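If your schedule permits, I should be very grateful for your opinion on a structural question. I have a record of one protein: its chain in single-letter code and its fold written as discrete structure tokens. Kindly check, if you would, that the fold set down in the tokens agrees with what the sequence suggests. I remain grateful for any guidance, and I place the record below:

***
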Amino acid sequence: MSPTGAARASVDAASIVASLNGSSSRAMTDVEKTRSGVSTTGLKNSRASNSSDGSGSDNEKSSQKDIVQTELTKDTETGGKDDAKDEEPLIKGKKMLGIMLALALSMFLAALDNTIVSTMLPKITEKFNALPLMTWIISAYVVSSTALQPMYGKLCHIYGHRNVLLTAHAFFIAGSVICGASKSARMLIAGRAIAGVGGSGLMSLCFVVVGDIVPTAKSPMYISVFGMVWAIASVAGPLLGGVFADKTGFQWGFYINPIIQAPVIVLIIFFLRLPSPQGSAMEKIKRIDFIGIAAVVIGIIMLQLGLTWGGQEFPWKSAAVIISLILGMLFLIGFVLIEWKLPAEPIMPLRLFKRRNASLMLIAQITFGMSFFLPIFYFPLYLSVVKNSSAISSGLHLISCMLGISLTTIMSGILISKTGVYLPFIWAGIAINVTGLGLFVLLGTHPSNGMLIGIPIVFGVGVGLAMQPMLSCAQNSVDQQDIATTTTLFMTVRMLGSAIGLAIAQSALQNDLTPRIAALIAKFPDSKELISSITYNQGAPWTPGIPQDVHDGLIDAYVASMHKVYLIFLAFGGITFIVSLFAKNVPLRKTLGASAME
């Protein structure tokens, strides 16, 4: 398994920017009239001031915008009035059940596709004789899904939740079918990239839809379902991939997607019925921030390419890696400047960073993402070296971790919805998570079964307790119309953080392992080729006929180097905890804001 491929397991949802409707003539519903304490007149004026027709004087627009923004900000800073009556979700009963089922299955498919390929890779590379392209079979999905996340939130508030979600499903189906029918590795890589475009939308729109139809005070209970589904899919993926690869052919690991998607699409068509956005086709096109989207997509792709290539296809000091990383950073900096100055409706309004909790949680997600993949990627590598575990066996060892994530995610979501308190869950969760990261350092060359099961549980409990509350904290600190943007940034920076963290960890592993391997070769020159193979073949210590001294030396060297990786992840976790301590308590918003309706 390629270390760079760890980015496959990532990935959580994201979407960008919900904006106020540009049409002031649309009739207001009863729900809209009562949201966030903003008057009907104020909302209409806000919509008028944000429309693209240019009518009205600049002074009038500025005055109207300031009035509405002041009211929204005042309400957001206090989390909504404590005596406000809890507002119900826009959709309830059977319709809500149908929507949640469709969204949960969409999340399951996207998360499954992230991980199912891992155990099918040997069969895929064997069929296409494509070992040099193995990394790209995984990375193509990750790069496209990360790069295109920013556009989904904006598009769903221009073209409607249902239309955009169905479009994402169409891309996912097309990519899956291409992968299943592939005649070459390059065709399969192209299919993975197309599937990534759809998978990004499947995950991100789950959070956007819930954020738009459920008050923040109640959304943790709904969103926690997605965390549980993601955890289940993360374990099921490698197991199903192994079964398909060995029993039916790896192609069915891709064909399973459209089979499950068929009923999901039916549920979306019949149950996800929200008022359609107003405006002509040309008016909607004008609202899209094409320049900003292009800048962020190119920036993320270049950054991901550099992190993917570094230490794998090219040395870190190579021109290809350095240029990719520099261009990625320049385009992302350019994206921030573009969003600051150019678009009328930016996909990332910089006002978000004026909110303390939102800024802190976004920073925390970078380091949280850096430490997130220790058990998902490096723990299986450790097991393959120390225990000679197969991919399926390693996947089974992750069940305890995912069980901890699933149970505590649901528990924290329910308790936050009932109590309105989230900071204690964040602090306790990250503290437990850091404890789990520290316990991984105790894993030696002869770990007990209790340690192999118990330590991932501790880590998983911490992740489950903190992950959803951190999102709620960020969402609750911004205006309702910015929840989609905040959610997108939250998920995107976590994914980028994971890519950066894995690159740092892999570089540290190689740098620490190289001199240890050189020392072993000097000690056992007759086994030079076998010893050197540990850098790409974690099963090298278990080669038949290997001398016992070489076997023990390889395991000792790899475990010692892995401890350095664990310490790096532990440092990332510690930074996350320190950053979270500066968050302040803002009572959860009990009503829906102005952007809940399309």
